Amino acid sequence: MKALTLKLKTDLTQRVDCSPLTPDKLAGKDVADIAAMELVSGRLTLPVEELFDISGDDVNNIRFENSSAKLDHIGHAMSQGRITIEGDAGAYLGQFMTGGNIEITGNTFIYSGCEMKGGQIKINGNAGDFVGAARSGYKNGMTGGTIIVTGNTGARTGDHMRRGMILIEGDAGEYCGSRMISGTIAVLGDVGKHLGYAMKRGTILLPKMPQHGITANFNDCGSHTLAFLPLMFASFKKLDSKFANVEGFSRVQRYAGDVGGIGMGEILVKI
User: SUPFAM superfamilies from the entry (predicted)?
Assistant: First the structure.
């Protein structure tokens, strides 16, 4: 079987909700059924065949080609299979996903991995604001799974994050780890201002002191040798990421906060 390939025919003028196009929701459907499915685009509903050229038939392995930043909700609530995206993707990539893999060779818009529970998303490019975060008005961001970003992320990465792991090979924007409840964020590059704002628990791991430093809302707890860090780095070896080649370390400067709240989060900086 060949991957089910959806090649975007033309530039879009309106955003398109691609949430029906997942391995779970296409299970048992043939190409004719898929072609006739309707997608919401602005105020219209359009058949899939009007937007995409369709080839292949393996619904457990879906490819989006010539993709656009106006294709929203790709991989919505998927629990199995694989989605590959050649080009950019819109908002809410992998929202609510519980399993499977999504890989994109391009950039993503806001809320990538929003409230995801499992699986893996790899973004070979930059990601917008609110990676792994909760939607506005909701209290739980991602609760499981792994997000890998080879480029940079926007503001409020991991906002309200509750579990899981976000690995950023580039830089992270302002308010990284804001209102974080649990989980791990690791950044190989620099981070913006207000790191760990209103953080409750969880870990932010950095190989160097941020350009803007650590805010006064985090107490310097001194230098520590943490035995769990080599185990964490060993777990990275299986990933297709720069993190697989990072030389592990256990000696860090530990900062605890945000003391404006319960103050049980930690920022660990290599020393």
Answer: Alpha subunit of glutamate synthase, C-terminal domain
